[in-house]
Amino acid sequence: MRIEILNKKIGFGGIVSNIDLTKDLDKNIIKKIDNELNNLCVLVFKNQKINDEQQLKFSKYFGEIEGAGKNTTIRKSNERRLSDSFGDVSNLDVNNKPFKKTDNKRYFALGNRLWHTDASFKKVPAKYSLLSGRKVAKVGGETQFSDMRSAYDKLLESKKKQIETMVCYHSLIYSRHRLGIDMHKMMSKEEIKNFEPVKQPLVRMNNLTKRKSIFLASHIGEIEGMEKPDTILFVNDLMEHCTKDMFLYTHQWDENDLVIWDNRQSMHRGLYYDDQNEIRDVRRTTISGSEMLIAQ
User: Fold this and answer.
1) Sheet of strand 42-45: strand arrangement
2) Would you tell me how many other CB atoms lie within 10 Å of the CB of residue 276?
3) Residue 15 lies in a domain
4) Does the predicted model carry a pTM greater than 0.70?
């Protein structure tokens, strides 16, 4: 296994070669991949023609798979084309046809084009995400990643001190509201309870590397002790800082790429493609986190 570092200035991202993810992997290789994820945040594996079963097997090397629960999607179980072990990040309905332009499920999925961290809206936020590009857009559809450790390092000391103990509320309700989507109108009172906001610290530390990072996402809609307009502006300012070119890696997808990233230390978003005329079939498995970061 060989790794080519993508951004050597900040030690962010790597392309991994000489490995076949369809095969059984020994514990030493898994340990090396895990260590590199902690250090680099994003790893790209090219030419990995895996099926669903193989993706699930590889994912389980890194922990428990977090299924697509009631607080991650508005799709009903009979509207899913993949098993509950997958997050369906495609533009396809249950019949493998692109969602119609005005379909609420399409609108909801457009939230993936906002900067976010997977499952930050859960009491125990996610660890890793693995995304397999089974069919990718010919034009557009890239995935951008931001190194939230380097973004933290470059903050003024006064800003670091200001955000050190901040507590934020995360929910899909907040991120979809940024797109003009009112989930309260789309869902019943019982269903909306699944999306109750959860608390997360704005600063967290990697227990292995001891590096601090900004735990940021468009899912943030409230900050304790701050008025709503001030919260939105504060988050927007932080987003602007964290997504400067110096912190970014933009992945140009080839078919059969598999990308793994560390949600604890990075933020990501998908970019535009013509979802009415192109098919983008990308399938995500998510690895559960190990602990609640703050009492709810």
Assistant:
1) 2-7, 12-17, 42-45, 258-262, 128-135, 281-286, 87-88
2) 11
3) yes
4) yes
